[in-house]
Amino acid sequence: MPPKPLDYESINENVKKAQYAVRGELYLRASELQKEGKKIIFTNVGNPHALGQKPLSFPRQVVALCQAPFLLDDPNVGLLFPTDAIARAKHYLSLTSGGLGAYSDSRGIPGIRKEVADFIHRRDAYPSDPELIYLTDGASKGVMQILNTIIGGLGDGILVPVPQYPLYSATIALLGGSLVPYYLEETENWGLNTNELRRSVSQARYNGINVKAMVIINPGNPTGQCLSEANLRDVLRFCYEENLVLLGDEVYQQNIYQDERPFISAKKLILYISTHKKVLMDLGSPLSKEVQLISFHTVSKGYWGECGQRGGYFEMTNIPPEVCLDFILHLLSFKLRFLAMFRMHKNWSTL
């Protein structure tokens, strides 16, 4: 008798290949030991609240009021919730039609996207367009959606740093693409070497792989470093020369535990280049208008550690409007939902 559709022999081969260490064999084995009475500290899953981190009170208060808006009508609401949380909840509810139980624009509520754009503007000192911001239930979902848009099959490759966060290797395998590794230099504070990038791309192309995108994880995960401005310039030049989409995983941008090297967003450097002619000429190419960038951020990681409260975004830079609206928006529309994306700890300006 042939195997059933969900027997091991019948399931999608890409699912078998998509090993995700964060929830894979190590985690499952630890869970087994925990059931046997062993005390296990799950340090591999980036789960701060499970290790005792206390949630920030303000966003939890706002979410509680938005989830149960009838509390706002209680005459004693001011005894349970601070006035700023009440005001913020009313503000967010005013942006919706139907509250948190209703579908929204596939990109997320316009008013929330405007607040995210304001945060990016303050961070980078350059404007951000809310129409090019897409809210997602965590950065991981955004990464998966973009990779799904880029990868068409085994012949499509994605440059990924090693060490890497296994979301990338697992998702690329699940989508049937090819992971093209490039190795960070531990002796150089886990920096990038363009010679290593070129070696990796050349090897992949020799093997018949069409390398289409490059991932940078900045600040690094699990390495913890911030890429230098020189490294970022090298990356932008490399992506321009090799015609690659740059995927900027920037979810730990508030977790900087050293003073010698600040976080610089890839978008900020692109816009800085575009407004400083000498820098643009030094780089020798019109890359500020040509390099395609998609950057990711989240409230599910970073110092919030809200792993179970999913919220994030990705922002598009130099992506053609027809791709943003006709294809990526179309893909997101398959999963209509409301995403409560709020400015954490009073507002995004505190980031």
UniProtKB/TrEMBL annotation:
<dbReference type="InterPro" id="IPR045088">
    <property type="entry name" value="ALAT1/2-like"/>
</dbReference>
<dbReference type="InterPro" id="IPR015424">
    <property type="entry name" value="PyrdxlP-dep_Trfase"/>
</dbReference>
<keyword id="KW-0663">Pyridoxal phosphate</keyword>
<dbReference type="GO" id="GO:0004021">
    <property type="term" value="F:L-alanine:2-oxoglutarate aminotransferase activity"/>
</dbReference>
<dbReference type="InterPro" id="IPR004839">
    <property type="entry name" value="Aminotransferase_I/II_large"/>
</dbReference>
<protein>
    <recommendedName>
        <fullName>alanine transaminase</fullName>
        <ecNumber>2.6.1.2</ecNumber>
    </recommendedName>
</protein>
<comment type="pathway">
    <text>Amino-acid degradation; L-alanine degradation via transaminase pathway; pyruvate from L-alanine: step 1/1.</text>
</comment>
<dbReference type="GO" id="GO:0030170">
    <property type="term" value="F:pyridoxal phosphate binding"/>
</dbReference>
<comment type="similarity">
    <text>Belongs to the class-I pyridoxal-phosphate-dependent aminotransferase family. Alanine aminotransferase subfamily.</text>
</comment>
<dbReference type="GO" id="GO:0047958">
    <property type="term" value="F:glycine:2-oxoglutarate aminotransferase activity"/>
</dbReference>
<feature type="domain" description="Aminotransferase class I/classII large">
    <location>
        <begin position="82"/>
        <end position="314"/>
    </location>
</feature>
<comment type="subunit">
    <text>Homodimer.</text>
</comment>
<keyword id="KW-0032">Aminotransferase</keyword>
<dbReference type="GO" id="GO:0008453">
    <property type="term" value="F:alanine-glyoxylate transaminase activity"/>
</dbReference>
<dbReference type="InterPro" id="IPR015421">
    <property type="entry name" value="PyrdxlP-dep_Trfase_major"/>
</dbReference>
<keyword id="KW-0808">Transferase</keyword>
<dbReference type="Pfam" id="PF00155">
    <property type="entry name" value="Aminotran_1_2"/>
</dbReference>
<dbReference type="GO" id="GO:0042853">
    <property type="term" value="P:L-alanine catabolic process"/>
</dbReference>
<dbReference type="GO" id="GO:0009853">
    <property type="term" value="P:photorespiration"/>
</dbReference>
<comment type="pathway">
    <text>Photosynthesis; C4 acid pathway.</text>
</comment>
